[in-house]
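hey so i finaly got around to running the thing on Putative 4-hydroxy-4-methyl-2-oxoglutarate aldolase from Thermobaculum terrenum. pasting the sequence first so u can double check i didnt mess up the copy paste, my clipboard has been acting weird all day
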Amino acid sequence: MEAEPFELRQLYRYLRVVDVSDAMDGIGYFDRGLVSPQIRPLWPGMRFWGVAFTVRCVPARRPMWALGSTQEIIKAHGIWFREVEHPSMEGLIRPGHVVVMDTGGAGEVGFWGSANSLEVISQGAVGIVTDGYCRDTRELELERVPICARGRGRTIIPGRIEVVEYGSRIGCGGVQVRPGDIVGADDDGVIVVPLEVAVEVARHAVGVLLADMRARRRLYERAGLAPDETVDHQAVEAYYRGLGVLS
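ok and heres what it spat out for the 3d tokens, dont ask me to read them lol
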């Protein structure tokens, strides 16, 4: 299969982060893609695989100025962005992207909230990963926005953080991330797969996953447990056979 990032997503459909980690170890990429365990899914059961869309930020140098009315406070972001240069993301997100943000060591700032997160998801992004904070977390959980962050924040953008550029090589959670790399997350954390080894890693990871599913299926039977989707290896085998991964 040609290494086109958005097509490669189909190879990762059923894979767990741990399967991919084992496969990367197996080809000598020890710990290369493991994003810091501090960067976690916001809510349990979250799972996504997609193509990295990178965002590089730096801490703001200019403080936010005092605002004179409730209406100005409500419109604080618009007031800030009119004064402080920032690049536009409009038209850059493709279906299947994972937005990955390097906050440049900025302090507590809830860059991703219930509105702008939904905006990038509505444009086709399948996940968001930031080494910073998110806010409005109750709403993000209710909306099931797939976001992984270092923590839950309370503050807003003005006077705290600036977006510098999109589409450059960045660092996030101790891992280098380039546009086009494959990024995945589940309850075990976040992992980044370099595009140049993404096909090889996926093929090995499929083998790891299926071996685990078959072994646990036997344990389920021995324990008298009803089978669930995590041991339905026949369905996964059929899927990957259809992709030509299995003979």
